[in-house]
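Q: What structure does this chain adopt?
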Amino acid sequence: MPIRFKCKECGERLEMPSSHFGRRAFCTECGKSILVPLPVAHACDKCGKSRVMDGRRDGQICQCGGQMKATQMFIKKLPGEMSRTYDVDELMKEIGSETGDL
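A:
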């Protein structure tokens, strides 16, 4: 599933495969090196529509007027370890809430 985000230098909307998060890429518009952000699945609490956004951005307003809430995030592990998708509530219990907002 692709991750869509804006270049912090020029504002160009970019799309990369979620497997590229955490890696450096180049903006297709300005050519600057950028870090591909963490893909997090969000769902609307009103209509149920879902989308992948860069990072945990709870509280954004959906087109229907509902609020988007983080539901899943992909955690990349070191080579030899298994990467997987976590339910956000499950992940918060596992790592603890002291790490702050993801």
